[in-house]
Every structure is written in C-alpha cells, then in structure tokens.
Amino acid sequence: MREQFRTCPRTGLIFHRPAENLIKANAVAAVVFLLVGGFLGLLVVLTRWQAVHLLGPDTFYQALTGHGVITLLVWIIFFEIALLYFCASTLLRSRLATPRLGWLAFGLMMIGAAMTAIAILQGGSSVMMTSYVPMPAAPQFYLGLIIFAVGALIGCFIFLGTLVIARAERTYEGSIPLVTFGALTACIIAIFTIASGAVILVPTFLWSVGYISQIDPLMYRVIWWAMGHSSQQINVAAHISVWYAIAAIVFGARPMSERVSRMAFLLYIFFLQLASAHHILVDPGVGTEWKLFNTSYAMYLAVLASMIHGLTVPGAIEVSQREKGLNNGLFEWLRKAPWGNPVFSGMFISLVGFGFLGGITGVIMGTEQLNLIIHNTMYVPGHFHPTVAVGTTLAFMAISYYLVPALFQRELVLPTLAKWQPYLFGIGTSLMGLFQMGAGTLGVSRRHWDMAFAGSPFSFEYGGTAHMMMGLAGFFGVISSIGAAAFIIIMVGTILFGKRVSEKSEYTTKRPARLPRAEPAPDHSNIGVAGFVAPGTFILALVFLATFVVYFFLNFGYLSSVWPMS
Amino acid sequence: MSAILPPSERIWWKQPIDRAEGTWVAIALVWCLIMFFMMPYWHVYGKQNYKGEAYRTTPAAFSVKVEEMVQNHTVRHVTDRNIPVVRPPAGSDVYLLARLWDWYPALELRKGETYRLHMSSMDWQHGFSLQPLNINMQILPGYETVITITPDSSGEFTIVCNEYCGILHHQMLGKIYVVD
Ligand code: HEM
Ligand SMILES: [Cu+2]
Ligand SMILES: [Cu+2]
C-alpha cells in the first residue's frame, strides 16, 4: 500500500493525499476565477457610478454577464467542491472515494467554465447569467454551463461515496460531525439543483443550435430559478457549515445543542430548495396560492432555520468563551474575541452581514406584494452581495486563512494585510450593498447601463439622492474590490512564496486513529446570566428581530403609498 | 471542537435544548407565521396586489389590439419620433406594448379613474418599472399581463425598462401622463 495519510503539525488535521491534492486544485481554481470575476465586478461598479461611467454599453453588459457567471457559479462552486472533499475525507479521516473521478470532475468543470467564459468574451453571449429566453446566446455558452454542472455533480457523488466509505471502514465513532452534516445538506440540495439545471439548460442548448423551435419564457423562468435559487441554498448550507467549523476551530466551541442545529439543517433540506417563486412574483400567469406557499418556503420554515443558525453559531462561541472565564457582563466574550485573526473576523462579519443585510432584505423581497416595489431594481444586487459576497464569499475567505497554510505547508504571507482584509472586503461589500438597496428603493434599475437614459426620445431624471447612492455604492465597491484583491494576493503569495513550515509532516501508510466523539459538555450552571448560557447572543438576536420587524412594516408603508392596483 | 467531531451523545436528537435556544426558536416561529399571514391579509385588506391575471397571446394578436386603441383614442403626438399619446375612456381596457426598444404608445389617464392595463412583449423579455413611483412588473412575450390600476396622483410618470433587453435597453422609456 502506498503512503497515504499525513497529519498537519499545526492544525492536527489528517489529510488523505489524493483528497489533499484535489482540495488544493479546486481551491486554487476557485481563487483564480475570483480574481477574474472580482475584476469584472470592479469594472461594472465603476460604470454604474454615473460620474465615472467607465465602460460602453456593449462591454458593460459583457462584463456584467461575466461577473455574474464567474463569481456566482465558478468561484463559489469550485470552492464548494473543495469543501465537500474536506468535510468528507479530512474531517472524517477517511480515504476519498474514486480520486480519479475527482480529477475528471475537476477537468470537466475547468473545460465548462472556460467554454462559457470564452463565449462571453467573444461578445455574442451578453445575456446575463440568467440567459432569459428568447434572447439568444452562443450554443457554447449553455454547453459550457452544462459541462461544468456535470463536473460538479460528479464531485457531489464523490462526497457521498466518501461518506459511505468512512462509515463502512468505521473511521469515526458515532454520527458524522455537525459540519459534515451541513455539507451533506449542501450536497443534497446541489443534486436537486443540478437536476433542475439540466431540465432547463439542455433544452435551451438544443434551442440555440436549432433542434427546438421555441422555449416558453415563463416556463424557462420557473425552472431556471428552481436551479438558480436552490444553488443559493447550497451556498447558505455550505457557509453556515463553515461558520460552525470556524467556531469549533478558533474557539473549540461545541454547538449549543446538536439537536437544534441538525434540525435546522433538516429544515433546509425539506423546504429551502422549494423556493423559486420569489423571482417570479410579478410575472404573468402564476397562481397566487402557489406563489404564497413557495415564496415563503412553506410558511418561512427555512427562514426559521436560518434564524436558528444565526443564534446558535454566535451562541456556541459565547458559551465557549464564558467557559474559558470571559463570563463578565453581556459582551465581554465578544469584546475579547480575536478580532485580529482573519479566520474569526471574516467569519463574524460574514455572519452579521449575511443576517442583518442579506437575510432581512431577502425575506422582504420575497414577500409577494413587497416585490412590486423591488423587482429588478438595484435593491436586488443590494440584497445578494451581502448574501453571496459577504455571507458565502467572505466565509470561504475566512476558512482559507486556516486551510491554505495547512494544505500547502507554508506560512501565510503579509499577515498585517491579512488582518485587515476581512474588514476591507466585508465592510466594503456590505456598504456597497446597503447603498445599492438605497438606490433600488429610489427606483434605479439593476442591469442598466445608463441611469441618465442618453439617446432616449423621452427623458427622465432620478433625483440627486439616487445618484449619490450609486456613487457611494461605487466608492464602497472599490473598497470591496481592494479587499478581494488583497485576499488573492495573500493566497497566491502564500502558495508560491510562503515560508515552508518548519515542522515535518510525512505521509505514512498507517491508517489514522478512529475519530473520537467530542467530550460531553461540562456543567453550565456557573456561566451566563439569568439562566441563559448565552445572554449576549440572545440580546443580539432580539436586536436583529426588532430591526426585521420595523423594516418589514416600513416596506408595507412604502407599498401602501403607490397607486392602488389589483 | 465538537462541531467538527462526532456528537458526544450517542442519541443526539434527545439532547435537552438550552433555554436561550428554545425561547428564540419560539419567538422566531411566531414571527415567521406573522410574516406569512401578512401576505393573504394584504390580498384582502391591502390596496396594492397583482393577482396574476394573464392570458396567452401572440405578438400579432396583441399588436392588433394596441393599433385599434391607438386609432380610436390618440389625442396628440410627442417627441421627435411622433409617438402617439392615447387617452382611453375611463374604465376601459388599455394596451401597452413593449418592444426593442420602446414602450408603445404613451398613455394619458385620468386621476382617480380605474383602468385595466394589458401589457405584452413583441420580442424579448422586458421590465415595466413605473417611476418615480417604483412599481415593477415582468413583461414576457406570449403572455398578456393584465393589471387594474387606479392612478391616485397626477403628473408625468416614466416607464423605465428594467429587464435587460440588449444594447439599447437604457433608451427604452415610455410615458404615462395622469391628468386631474
Ligand atoms: C469584488 C467586489 C464586487 C463588486 C465591486 C461587485 C459589483 C457589482 C455590481 C456593481 C453589480 C451590478 C449591478 C447591476 O447593474 O445590476 C454586480 C452584480 C452581481 N454581482 Fe457583484 N460585485 C463584487 C463581488 C461579487 C461577488 C464576490 C459575487 C458572488 C460571489 C458577486 C455576484 C454578483 C452577481 C451574481 C451579480 C448579478 C449579475 C447579473 O445581474 O446578472 N459579486 N456586482
Ligand atoms: Cu426592455
Ligand atoms: Cu430593457
């Protein structure tokens, strides 16, 4: 038998060599694509900043299509595949199932991503990532996405196969850890997502080469969003798993209760992937009952799950800090948290930004009637940058600070820049999102080259405030881009030039010891306030709820001020 | 480190729930239900709803109806492109067509009157975004969206296209004039 496993001297993680190589390859591909996608984001935001108005209309729509596809699909999914392998093989100390197929998956994803990217670059496919029919893109635009998805699907099955192996070979005691459970949630949703994607993209590809004469635009939207939105739920499940992992890694935190956290993931599996209707609330020909049930993920049960994770992740950190003696008052545990450690600061900004900005606004937009005053405005990018860029992307950045040195056995370069990077990217992107929302509330459209409407027979002027909002979004977009660039510089620098870690870490043929259960929780009667073990988190959660309630009804106030309609 | 380790209790689903967690789950559940019931509530008591009324149509059939309305009710023309302004009778069916890259025709409505506004696209998808009110609807080819509106403010309103529809998407404006 060949030498297979090594133990990382710093982190104690046990890497199976083929899994390690695949994790490295997927993570590096992800970072390279983030570079491209982030750069396009900078061009886009500098064009929407009306005073700068950088690109012409053709290059703007081309860059926007590229930005959406490359960040949202390519960067995130490559990273997620790396995470899936990590959560199954590394966390469970198991060998990875079928590494050869892992390389096939990687190859297909690279080919697919490149094919779509080239189609966009050639100019005939500036159709936005949603590629709404009947606006046509080049056939290879769709084909690339399909090939990419096939690769990702293989990755999902390798993850499942690895879970089966780990169980059969008894590499761990008891049940799989919570983080792996979360990854399993992401994987199940991913399989559903890719199936929906196939149902819509395969016919669209055939249509683009002329085998199908017509695709119904409404049907396209319903099915496309069954893919498009569920893929966001993969992201949510994945980045929440990362939050739990970071809480465990940095603080040694244990979930407040396994039962609640796992139930919340189960709610995701049952209800989250349901949702696609919130993208078609103001579309013709969709029934009201279906809209209500679907847009609310069955009465908001999946939102409930997110609100649960939003409490239990910081709650777990609080309990662990209090156990260590930071038990004074409500917030000593938070004040004395390691704010200079990018693994923690990135995760915490991700959590707050995702909850307060991304989460609340997502539910607002998905409320059937409120969508009338939001659909397709800048409010939409204002919502999803806090979710996918602050929530998912920043969480992935945070865990990279932990994983990349362990994988490549090198010291992190530029530690001071690393300390600031999560703040630059997290706060820059959050504020960009906030001002985009402001502009959207004032009616500015998304995906729109010119808010001054040059060349139109009619004229219309947005107020000065709307222009100011877009300018501020532009400014903070630049900050956010600097933050993204800093991340890429640190990661590439570490991989290429980082100092080799001094401790030796050899591959051995010995199977790793079985992964033990966690220690049982100690008695908590001596920590916390008034019978609450995590009172600070509870107060923060109540602040969150109050913000949510006020903002929800405020929006109904706006709605009631527009023309009556039915 | 237990989130990355197997749970300590063999039967994790019987673990007792902490007080903070239990209370929060209960509060959050109540709020979720309130948000959910706000939607049917607004359908009954709110004034701004789109009930999803829509019909299948074709570009040809729809443009016939638009032309008929333009022939019968045009009151003037505006802009250097001579875009007709149509003043349909109060309470009537009004047709608005979206195409690359304009909204046709311009409309003149009376404040406080109710109209049934029919919209459809001749080609690709478009977005009806009425500014500065900020009312937004998706317009699809092959589907005729019908929405009953009662303008309760007067003045000049602009229809911005807010679904990306190609290179001159930014020039796609239309007008609704509301007179007292
Ligand atoms: C690097 C900093 C970033 C900047 C400055 C930026 C800026 C922007 C801007 C200005 C828009 C266009 C709004 C419009 O006109 O409709 C946009 C769209 C978008 N962004 Fe970003 N963004 C950044 C990072 C990200 C990241 C990390 C992600 C995802 C992981 C992301 C996902 C998207 C998506 C999906 C769209 C929508 C594209 C479409 O409408 O088809 N962005 N971004
Ligand atoms: Cu349009
Ligand atoms: Cu348009």
UniProtKB/TrEMBL annotation, chain A:
<dbReference type="InterPro" id="IPR036927">
    <property type="entry name" value="Cyt_c_oxase-like_su1_sf"/>
</dbReference>
<feature type="transmembrane region" description="Helical">
    <location>
        <begin position="464"/>
        <end position="497"/>
    </location>
</feature>
<keyword id="KW-0813">Transport</keyword>
<keyword id="KW-0812">Transmembrane</keyword>
<dbReference type="InterPro" id="IPR000883">
    <property type="entry name" value="Cyt_C_Oxase_1"/>
</dbReference>
<dbReference type="GO" id="GO:0020037">
    <property type="term" value="F:heme binding"/>
</dbReference>
<feature type="transmembrane region" description="Helical">
    <location>
        <begin position="234"/>
        <end position="253"/>
    </location>
</feature>
<dbReference type="GO" id="GO:0004129">
    <property type="term" value="F:cytochrome-c oxidase activity"/>
</dbReference>
<feature type="transmembrane region" description="Helical">
    <location>
        <begin position="101"/>
        <end position="121"/>
    </location>
</feature>
<protein>
    <submittedName>
        <fullName>Cytochrome C oxidase subunit I</fullName>
    </submittedName>
</protein>
<feature type="transmembrane region" description="Helical">
    <location>
        <begin position="69"/>
        <end position="89"/>
    </location>
</feature>
<feature type="transmembrane region" description="Helical">
    <location>
        <begin position="265"/>
        <end position="282"/>
    </location>
</feature>
<dbReference type="Pfam" id="PF00115">
    <property type="entry name" value="COX1"/>
</dbReference>
<feature type="transmembrane region" description="Helical">
    <location>
        <begin position="424"/>
        <end position="444"/>
    </location>
</feature>
<dbReference type="GO" id="GO:0009060">
    <property type="term" value="P:aerobic respiration"/>
</dbReference>
<keyword id="KW-1133">Transmembrane helix</keyword>
<keyword id="KW-0679">Respiratory chain</keyword>
<feature type="transmembrane region" description="Helical">
    <location>
        <begin position="384"/>
        <end position="404"/>
    </location>
</feature>
<keyword id="KW-0249">Electron transport</keyword>
<feature type="transmembrane region" description="Helical">
    <location>
        <begin position="178"/>
        <end position="202"/>
    </location>
</feature>
<feature type="transmembrane region" description="Helical">
    <location>
        <begin position="297"/>
        <end position="317"/>
    </location>
</feature>
<feature type="transmembrane region" description="Helical">
    <location>
        <begin position="141"/>
        <end position="166"/>
    </location>
</feature>
Automatic annotation (TrEMBL), chain B:
<feature type="domain" description="Cytochrome oxidase subunit II copper A binding">
    <location>
        <begin position="89"/>
        <end position="180"/>
    </location>
</feature>
<keyword id="KW-0479">Metal-binding</keyword>
<protein>
    <submittedName>
        <fullName>Cytochrome C oxidase subunit II</fullName>
    </submittedName>
</protein>
<keyword id="KW-0472">Membrane</keyword>
<dbReference type="GO" id="GO:0004129">
    <property type="term" value="F:cytochrome-c oxidase activity"/>
</dbReference>
<keyword id="KW-1133">Transmembrane helix</keyword>
<dbReference type="Pfam" id="PF00116">
    <property type="entry name" value="COX2"/>
</dbReference>
<keyword id="KW-0812">Transmembrane</keyword>
<keyword id="KW-0186">Copper</keyword>
<dbReference type="InterPro" id="IPR002429">
    <property type="entry name" value="CcO_II-like_C"/>
</dbReference>
<dbReference type="InterPro" id="IPR051403">
    <property type="entry name" value="NosZ/Cyto_c_oxidase_sub2"/>
</dbReference>
<dbReference type="GO" id="GO:0030313">
    <property type="term" value="C:cell envelope"/>
</dbReference>
<dbReference type="InterPro" id="IPR008972">
    <property type="entry name" value="Cupredoxin"/>
</dbReference>
<dbReference type="GO" id="GO:0005507">
    <property type="term" value="F:copper ion binding"/>
</dbReference>
<dbReference type="GO" id="GO:0016020">
    <property type="term" value="C:membrane"/>
</dbReference>
<feature type="transmembrane region" description="Helical">
    <location>
        <begin position="22"/>
        <end position="42"/>
    </location>
</feature>
